[in-house]
Amino acid sequence: MRANRAKERCPWAESDLLLRDYHDEEWGVPQYDSRALWELLMLESFQAGLSWLIVLKKREALQAAFRQFDPAKVARFSDGDIQMLLDDPRIIRSRAKIKATIKAAQIFLEMQKSGKDFAAVIWEMAGGKPIQNESPMSMHPIAEEMSKDLKRRGFKFVGPVIVYAFMQAAGIVNDHSHTCFRREAVMRLKRGKLPNRK
Questions:
Q1: What are the backbone dihedrals phi and psi of residue 170, each rounded to the nearest 5 degrees, phi first?
Q2: Does the active-site annotation cover 32?
Q3: Catalytic residue among 27, 38, 52, 123, which?
Q4: Looking at 22, 27, 123, 164, which residue is catalytic?
Q5: What are the chain's domains?
Q6: pLDDT tens digits along 17-74
Q7: Is 44 labeled as catalytic in the residue annotation?
């Protein structure tokens, strides 16, 4: 990490070491795994009204509390589980966001059961490959479309701003600034293999 300190980054990543490491290692790297994409969308949903730094600081606790974001496990959470989460000071304790995550897990499983792979559905909306945003940090129109689609399926806390942050984080859109050392590196990443779209 020391060698990267002299490299220019996206301005938002310079204010905190945790943000910098996340930017250098994860942000914008295309993600094609359905469970991992779903987890990232849930984490972005927890960010609503908060900062991403808060989510990053609580990410390990959230992963533990939500069984590593395994949809099959989260979908079975009971009222007792919800209360345990609300009593856990390590996580973001929002009843609405917790219940939305449980519902989102159920939707994920319903999609799976009907033959719709979450990653394939998400990437199909983006045209099947990462979007190279020529105007970084300028919301791409697809965020609006994806937000509407997710809301139609029953997801909560998936407004366009949250969805766009999800797209940036998941590498669906390469939003690294033109002077950022990660922009070209992310562009060179090989495309992952997606399941058949249904």
A1: -85, 0
A2: no
A3: 52
A4: 22
A5: 7-187 (1.10.340.30)
A6: 999 999 999 999 999 999 999 999 999 999 999 999 999 999 999 999 999 999 999 9
A7: yes
